[in-house]
Each structure stands twice: as structure tokens, then as C-alpha cells.
Amino acid sequence: MNLVACLRASLLGALLAASIPVVAQAKLTLEQAVTVALEKNPVRKAAAFQQRAAYADLKLSRAPLLPHIGFSETYQDGNDPVYVFGSKLRQQRFTTADFDRFDLILAMDLDNLAHLRTIAKGRAQPAIHLLREFEPGAPDGAEVPDPYGGLGTDFDRVLDICERACRGLLDHVRGDADRS
């Protein structure tokens, strides 16, 4: 018997063993028969399941090593910018309980930094920093300026500062994750 005849006989036997009614099907080509046999192979299915489970376990085991950052996005329709943005700002007072919730706390200016350090006294605290500490080239103690009351370009400048500082923050966080 040649190789093709052996394969056909093996595949036919596998199809019969898998209770696939051969009579009800149209004739299969060798390629179709191999595809069906692979799709129905329980060992292959079990291996694929085990591989997915192992990957999920790996992701789960690495999760505590990575920083947890939460983001949300909403849509607000309106013509009044104060209403649109003001309705989405959720300002709230920082409490001592927040020190237990966060690993890193960022302040935009020195007054808020001093306040955070005051309420954190005597506690095992997470790292408290000025946001601009992560901005490459920013001077020591640099604050994020308040753009309100200024020109439209002041808002652009503050956005640029925050974006540079956040890129530096991400580099810092990624560096910590790589060292873990």
C-alpha cells in the first residue's frame, strides 16, 4: 500500500470511530479529511485548552507586579464649556483612607504636596510626589501652573507640561515593573 492509501484508510477509520456518518457526507478530499480529523481530535482540543489556561495563569500571576491604573471616558453634550467640563470633574477631599488605596500619590503644586504630607504623618504612606518630578528637565520643586484666568495658550502650555510629566511617570512605572 502506498502512503496516500494508508492515510486514507487511517482517516476513514478515524472518521468512523468518531461516529461521523460517512454515508451522509459528500466525498472528502484528503485535505478535507485531515482538517476534519484535526478539528475533532480530543487530544488536540485538550492541549489547546491547557495552553489557554496556562496563559491565563501566567497573566494572573504577573498582575500584582504591574501598576494598576484606572481610566474612564464619558460623553457630555452641550454648548457651555463650564457645564460640560464642570459636570464631569469629581473633586473630593483626599482622606487618610486614600493612603491605603494608592501606591503613588501625585500633587500638582507645593501647597497640595505639603497638605498631603501633613495628613500622612505617622502613617505608613505611599510615595508622594509632585507630578513635575517626572517631567524630564523640570527644575526641582516645579509646579503645574494654574491656567485659569490666563490666556488660551496657558491651557495649551499646562497640557504640554502634564503630557511630558505623564510620559516620564509612565517610564518610571515601567522601570519599576521591569525591576520586579
Oligomer: single chain
Shape by Cα distribution: elongated
Helix content: 40-55%
Estimated radius of gyration: 30 Å
Number of domains: 2
Helix-strand topology string: HHHHHEHEH
**Proportion of strand residues:** under 5%
Q: What separation lies between the terminal Cα atoms?
A: 60 Å
Q: Order of strands in the sheet with the most strands? A: 1-2
| Structural class computed from helices and strand pairing | mainly alpha
Q: So, the CATH homologous superfamily of the largest domain?
A: Response regulator
Provide structural commentary:
- By secondary structure, this protein is mostly helical.
- It has two domains: 3-64, no CATH class; 92-179, 3-Layer(aba) Sandwich (Rossmann fold), CATH 3.40.50.
- It has seven helices and two strands, in the order H-H-H-H-H-E-H-E-H.
- It has a two-stranded parallel sheet with strand order 1-2.
- It is elongated, with a radius of gyration of 30 Å.
- The relative contact order is 0.07.
- The mean pLDDT is 76.
Please tag this protein with its features.
two-stranded parallel ribbon, 4% strand, 7 helices, single chain, 2 strands, 180 residues
Structure described in brief:
It is built from 7 helices and 2 strands. By secondary structure, the protein is mainly alpha-helical.
What order do the helices and strands come in, and which of them pair?
Blueprint: H1 3-17, H2 30-40, H3 42-62, H4 81-86, H5 98-101, E1 104-107, H6 110-119, E2 127-130, H7 152-179
